[in-house]
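pasting for the record
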Amino acid sequence: MSTEIEKKFLVTSEKWRGLAPGKHYSQGYLSREKETTVRVRIINDQGFITVKGAVKGETRPEFEYEIPLQDARELLSKLCHKPLIEKTRYKIPFGEFIWEVDEFAGENKGLIFAEIELNYEGQEFSKPDWIGEEVTGDPRYYNASLVTNPYRDWREETTG
């Protein structure tokens, strides 16, 4: 069984731009339950299906498998909840880790955050100067939540 230990942070400046090439991600959810999510994703021209379990502490089980690209396209168009998540991901090395910066498009345009995957809970790491507030525990930033509560709606709530 694979596990995921991930922390999520807001990005505070544009200093990360140009540090790595981006890859286009299109993803949708077959299931968005609290205990289990099932995600379909296309990264450039590869399809994947991922099953994630509930978070316990900072850790959750994760299983990801490559699937045929055409199957991924059909699942996204016919079975996944809408809107789909569209984003570009940039994998930026910093220290001994890779920071994944997600820049969202579509319904979530304007949202940019960064994630770091750790090897164990409580592992220490240094942050680039463009990393801001941690939002790991805020469910609004879960990709599965961005389907039903897209970033566009948050901005409308704060701007009136």
